[in-house]
């Protein structure tokens, strides 16, 4: 049996998993990321991988973006300090491990996991979106991640939909992440005077009749539906899979968004709109990274 490695480097912790060709996680490790200097993290990954006594065909690697996916370089990520910036992580880790390592962003890896193992299994065109702290997206076409010409395809968070709309960190005002992410829903609620700590509480107030909360939730769903309707117009996917805390924990959110999308597309397209919740757990990123590792040998 062959094996691949999935690595997920986060701003706080790094996870490493050994995955067999049936996509079972055989072993997994987690350790704190050195967010100042990449080399201690690279060394620890090598120590873990050196302990795996199996034939390893490749490694998929997730790291906070923005990333240069074409050349395997970490760019100016806000989640890691400047010692990581412009670090050629794919090349460095490949040389350390002795086999190829491919860098990918987390949403693309989640999309790949969905296409291989999840709700998109056996489908040719799969779009995944996470609606959580931020809004991220990935697209898998005939089993391969679609990156675009420069590796920035489906970096959707900054797409502006609302003229002079809400601001949210470095996101362009009125960008989809500034409207529909869980963080944005909460922030907009607080700015409007609501006593809330997460998007679920905004939704609870909306259900109880609070008009301000109702407006915030309605706008979050409406603009997300606008975005997904545009995705159907451009890509005609077989399925759109939603993950993240907002999609998974707010009852009826996905179903409401799907109905709105069906009303926005052409009538001949509406029957093909298929928006569902992910059924993969928190390991989807690691499994997606392993899927990418297995694709390296092909």
Automatic annotation (TrEMBL):
Sorted keywords for this record are: Kinase, Transferase
UniProt name for this protein: Sugar kinase
SUPFAM superfamilies (UniProt xref): Actin-like ATPase domain
Q: Name one GO molecular function term.
A: kinase activity
- Domain of life according to the entry: Bacteria
On whether DNA repair is a keyword of this UniProt record, the answer is no
Check the record and name the InterPro entries matching this protein.
ATPase_NBD, ROK
- Which family does the UniProt entry place this protein in? Belongs to the ROK (NagC/XylR) family.
